[in-house]
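Methods — Computational structure assignment.
A single polypeptide chain was analysed. Its primary sequence is given first, followed by the predicted tertiary structure written as structure tokens.
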Amino acid sequence: MNVRRYHGSRKTLSGTSEYYLFRRFGALLLALILSAAVLAGCAAAPDPFVVSSGTPEAPTADYGDETSGSAPTAVSNVPESTSKEPTPPSTPSGISPSETERTSASVPPSETADVTPSETLPSESPTTPVPSVTADPTTVSATSASSETPSSLKRVSFLAAGDNIIHEAVFTDAAALASAQAATDGYEEKYYFDPMYENVGSLIGKADLSFVNMECPIAGEEYGISGYPRFNAPLEAAETLVRLGFDIVNVANNHMLDMDDRAAGYRNTVNTLKKLPLTVVGGYTKNDYDDLRIIEKNGVKIAFLSYTTSLNCEQINPASPEMIVPYPAESDIRRQTKKARENADFVVVSMHWGIENETELSGTQTSLARLLCECGVDVILGHHSHTVQKAQWITSGDNRTLCYYSLGNFISTQHPIKNLVGIFASFDFVIGENGERTVENAKAIPHMTWYSTARDGVKIYLLNEVTPELIASHGSQLRVEENKGVFTLADVKAICEAQFPKEEITV
């Protein structure tokens, strides 16, 4: 079995960091200072950071006041280091209708998993600076050199975003932004997506590792950039994700073969993303399907698997017969999760499942979630419904799984308000002093996509930063039929509150 290991690190598109030697006299001066410190006696190391034993806390959400413009308290546990902050470029609309759920998975009923509320743990985590990075065409190979905690405790903060959908209105707006930027400072690319994400960039950058579902192929501009129903996003959309600080990108979803009727779109997408400093999951060949994608960060090894239950276009282009679609067949899940558990400290599974535009869970979601829990998966990151769905802890014997059933849309220009709201899944992977492995500090951080009545000015806001004035000027207010009338900020918050109460989740 092949195991691909990646060492977590900061992403840039500009190349490796440069290191300089001390000048001779500088080094001599440093040596004299250190000698004096030793003779004078140095202060002792701080006391070890100890995590209280107990059950991981249940996912919680923070919505803020109606007019709040402050940062959400839900992210207070994110380390203060900003070394993974998004970096600027090198130079300064379709609407998806409902699709029925289709699946090739054959999952027999399993015994009902007990889901219990969790005890609250101390919320503070050690501040861990993120190291600089080397951008490698196929792997992220820079060593993770975070500052040592005083004890053997290891912690990785993790953030996950939902469906990154590059609708026609999104890339049209990006083209206009690129033209404006070119006039200002000579920007040379055709599309400029960065401003759309600027309100959430620092949150993504502060997480040790971050994940996003790329809900469209990047088959090549020569085949035409397009939105719904056959997506083909420009390369600049993926490069923006890198600058934001995303580490893991998923391509297993119902749109992954959208361009395979006219090109080897699936293969081109995977190959294109692999040239960026990203770990790509969900895109496989028959030869590497069982190769584990493992990221090692802060001394913690995390394995990533990915499956999709449906496809809009079901035929892989004949020019790329080596590619394989990762359907969630039970035999594959059991085989791959077993290998992942044997080679990593934690196992994360990306699941593209459920029924579009539904907030309630489907039978396939619940049965697959129980199977994954039975197989020892630690976290499930669900997406596909384009709506926010609940999160819960699932238990099976000694196994305990944190399952976010759907993160909703990350960016899109759909009209119904339930499609404009999404969440970031936020949690920590922790290995304690005694070697115990836990998932802690689980949260849901709501956000919303805004656009004007002309469907431009696309921008993501944390829900705590959304004001009644922004809601009143939202372009989707014109679609009264889809939204069942004009909506308010309270209506938007209610969408998330229905799935993520302000108090501890009990399901």
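Note: DSSP finds eleven helices and 18 strands in the chain.
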